[in-house]
Design a protein that fits this description.
Low-confidence stretches: 1-10, 13-18
Protein name: PKD domain-containing protein
Strand content: 35-45%
CATH topology of the largest domain: Methylamine Dehydrogenase, Chain H
Number of domains: 4
Largest sheet: 5 strands, mixed
Distance between the termini: 56 Å
Organism: Nonlabens spongiae
Keywords: Signal
CATH class of the largest domain: Mainly Beta
Number of helices: 4
InterPro entries: Ig-like_fold, PKD/Chitinase_dom, PKD_dom, PKD_dom_sf, T9SS_type_B
CATH architecture of the largest domain: 7 Propeller
Pfam families: CHU_C (PF13585), PKD_4 (PF18911)
Helix content: under 10%
Length: 681
């Protein structure tokens, strides 16, 4: 059996963007980012000035369509849409707006807004929708005058999120208030204004204290669905009750208490077939002391990243920082809350701000008043890192608390994976997408392979015809469109394997142990070959792991019978592991016919090599010249030393010199007994 291994395996991934609606971001003070080239670039032409909430939408090719702070809507030319003002959101709302396309209608988009009121949150105007028609204003788009500021809920929090539904023909749009989640479904038929309502913990009270701004903090914080549409997280900046403010009359003390008493972080199951939110799992509660705001899932949905400020109540200042943290939870853990890791701690500055994943797979973090964004690099990786000031914004622009939110299905990229290979061995490729893959066309960039150069399998393999670098392209069709993405794979020269002896049999030396000299294997494999290493290992596993090489190849003792060891042949990039078969056989015995028991160390015993501990059932009988048996023994006895142990002469003394007759019976099928003469002197 032959084992083939690629010595330095490179698994290459590319992100085939299922859609690029999230390519452009506008946020903060005139700040922006463009991800459409694959490498994020800062933008300086943004028109919005927003403390928190914002939303942007691009077409499937990554071209900007429009953006909003929840109040005003700007078109692709960064001009205010003619009917694009006075929406019912608020730039101080955590998620003031989200933009969701109408399925099967590339010209119409819903803008969902949620309001806030920094003085009395209970006075906010609730949740509304407006429809943008891209056919209006000469193709630049405008809000339909007949579908503007249509009320959905009279009161809700500052939270919005969205994801595609289970049938790939629409989207769920979620908001939350008190202990209820409201899920609205948008399909090609339009928005169903009757939401699916789920009542789950915790209850976030809308505080009725008359003290300014106190009730706002309870409504702050993001909610996010993951791209798979099966998990939902909710960050609540605080969770206070009206009774906690009894007797407090000054604004500073009240606001400090509202901010600093700690909030909630909850994870839920979401059913994207029904819109139901269930199974609340507390990851952090008010007693933990963290005020949670920004949250985001890694693109592979394994990790949840969060931002929390730990604040100390004060009678003199609203923000009194103990510490701020960027945290991570492993959603595959049996105890998710206990899996929390702290990636970064700041003892000086609060970290309150949005966490938002970009099309490059990294998660960006906004904090107020900075000329840059922080970034979580490689958030799918267990060794992901958090880097401050990682992405510089355009000069003259600033980050604030918020970053644009999107339909989460837009964010995640469909993976195409490929591996480098050795010439002659098939390379494996795969594709995956959060959307159902309807069809795929691979081109391996290897025209010499003829009809094998293409494949319509989701997980194909291809054997390249020569060495070098190849551009492999996949055209992927999902319910949301067609995308083309490429990766480059390398094909390296394979190892050279000369003909060599791969099977050895030696005589049993006892207990089925033999000694093998395998120097010929190395000699044969090395002949006329340069730049390769060749080593022997006790097993294939040892060869794969490069552990416990056999150092003395001229005297190898087996451990089992039969046994397979391995030869490892490697060049700079490729390796081959081949078996070598070792076997032990019971060879014919060799009998020496002279016995001189004079204790000189030579022939003091009747020597029969290849017998003891090999033929375990043997029986040896010695007869004198008159035919009388004088000695008998088996594998458990010492060899005959010239004395008698049976018959009349069994005195323990050495028998007289002379010729004796032996019969050696192996007591094994197909093994004939041996007999002959031995001379005792």
């Amino acid at each position: 059996m032959k084992y083939k291994v690629f010595w330095m395996l490179f698994l290459l991934c590319a992100f085939a963007k299922a859609q690029q609606e999230s390519s452009c971001w506008y946020f903060g003070i005139n700040a922006g980012i463009d991800f459409s080239s694959g490498t994020p670039q800062p933008l300086s032409d943004g028109q919005i000035v927003t403390l928190e909430g914002c939303a942007t939408i691009s077409d499937r090719s990554g071209n900007l369509l429009f953006y909003t702070d929840g109040t005003s809507v700007y078109n692709r030319d960064n001009a205010l849409m003619p009917n694009g003002d006075d929406l019912k959101g608020d730039s101080s709302s955590t998620s003031s707006a989200i933009i969701v396309p109408i399925p099967n209608d590339p010209s119409r988009y819903y803008i969902i807004t949620v309001d806030t009121d920094d003085n009395r949150y209970r006075n906010n105007e609730g949740m509304f929708y407006s429809v943008v028609d891209m056919n209006l204003d000469n193709g630049n788009g405008d809000i339909d005058v007949f579908e503007k500021n249509i009320n959905l809920l009279t009161l809700t929090s500052e939270k919005l999120t969205s994801v595609k539904n289970a049938t790939d023909d629409g989207y769920w749009i979620l908001t939350q208030f008190e202990d209820r989640f409201y899920a609205y479904e948008l399909t090609s038929s339009g928005l169903n204004t009757s939401p699916v309502v789920s009542t789950v913990d915790p209850f976030i009270e809308l505080i009725t204290s008359s003290i300014t701004n106190v009730d706002v903090s309870a409504m702050r914080g993001y909610i996010k669905l993951n791209s798979a549409g099966d998990k939902l997280v909710a960050a609540h900046f605080s969770n206070n009750s009206t009774s906690e403010f009894s007797g407090i009359t000054d604004v500073t003390t009240a606001r400090s208490l509202a901010y600093n008493n700690g909030g909630e972080l909850y994870l839920y199951d979401f059913d994207n077939a029904t819109g139901i939110v269930s199974n609340p799992v507390p990851l952090a509660t008010k007693q933990d002391g963290g005020s949670y705001y920004g949250v985001e899932f890694s693109s592979d949905n394994r990790y949840l990243y969060t931002e929390a400020d730990y604040l100390i109540p004060s009678t003199t200042q609203v923000i009194n920082l103990d510490r701020a943290e960027i945290q991570r939870f492993d959603l595959t853990s049996s105890n998710i809350a206990a899996s929390k890791e702290v990636l970064y701690t700041d003892d000086t500055n609060t970290l309150r701000g949005a966490l938002q994943i970009g099309l490059d797979g990294n998660i960006y973090h906004a904090t107020i008043g900075l000329e840059s964004l922080a970034r979580i690099e490689n958030p799918n990786d267990p060794n992901a890192t958090y880097e401050q000031n990682a992405f510089a914004l355009a000069p003259g622009t600033l980050s604030q608390y918020g970053l644009p939110i999107f339909v989460q299905s837009f964010i995640v990229n469909a993976d195409i994976n490929g591996e480098d290979s050795c010439l002659g061995d098939p390379a494996q490729f795969s594709a995956s997408s959060p959307d159902s893959i309807l069809s795929i066309e691979w081109n391996f960039g290897d025209p010499a392979s003829g009809n094998d150069n293409t494949s319509t399998l989701i997980n194909p393999e291809h054997t390249f015809t020569t060495t070098g670098d190849f551009t492999v392209t996949a055209e992927i069709t999902t319910a949301f469109g067609v995308t083309i993405q490429s990766i480059t794979v390398s094909v390296f020269p394979d190892v050279v394997v000369n003909p060599f002896q791969d099977s050895f049999t030696v005589c049993n030396e006892g207990f089925e142990i033999g000694t093998f000299d395998l120097t010929s294997v190395i000699t044969e494999l090395e002949q006329d070959v340069d730049n390769q290493t060749i080593e022997l290992y006790p097993s294939e596993e040892h060869a794969q792991n490069q552990t416990s090489p056999i150092t003395d190849i001229s005297a190898i003792n087996n451990t089992t019978n039969p046994e397979t060891i391995a030869v490892h042949i490697a060049n700079d990039n490729c390796e081959e592991i081949l078996p070598i078969y070792l076997a032990i056989e019971n060879c014919d015995v060799e009998i020496f016919n002279i016995l001189t028991p004079n204790e000189d160390g030579k022939n003091d015993e009747f020597v029969i090599t290849g017998l003891r501990n090999i033929y375990f059932n043997h029986k040896l009988s010695i007869y004198n010249r008159y035919g009388a048996k004088v000695w008998e023994g088996d594998n458990d006895d010492s060899p005959w030393n010239g004395t008698a142990n049976t018959g009349l002469l069994s005195t323990g003394e050495v028998l007289p010199s002379g010729t004796y007759f032996y019969i050696l019976d192996f007591n094994e099928a197909e093994k004939e007994p041996k007999s002959g003469y031995v001379y005792l002197h």
